[in-house]
Amino acid sequence: MDEREILTWDLFGKASRELAEMVAADGFRPDLILSIARGGLFAAGALGYALSVKNLHVMNVEFYTGVDERLELPVMLPPVPNVVDLTGAKVLVADDVADTGSTLKLVHDFCQDHVADVRCAVLYEKSHSMVKCEYVWRRTDQWINFPWSTLPPVVDAAVLDA
């Protein structure tokens, strides 16, 4: 098996705190945090607490279908945030990883024309990402085992869809 970056729950706690400290040290005070579901939900929640930001939004984007398997292009899934809720805001986009950067670019571009400022915070950024995030906890080009997605689901998705 290829070497992998392993993020445990304990290390996630340290990582998210250090990521929040980077944002705070930069003087950026977001009005809201826009989480990219699903992996970004964990980072966004931790950042929200650490940065005293209660206004959290979620954007559902589908791109990965498996390990190194992805759709041709990322797709926004409903409900898409209302741009009226974002207008004039300082937005921190949170995700677990900037891999290709396609998902972050889609969300960043969605926000760009409506917000006062949009910046990205990720736990991991890969060297080939088309988006270079303002706040990155760690850089790697390995596949990452996140604590929330390493184990298989406790339910079979095929059974749920039947």
UniProtKB/TrEMBL annotation:
Protein name in UniProt: Phosphoribosyltransferase domain-containing protein
Molecular-function GO term, any one: glycosyltransferase activity
SUPFAM superfamilies: PRTase-like
Keywords: Glycosyltransferase, Transferase
Domain Phosphoribosyltransferase per the UniProt entry, residue ranges: 5-150
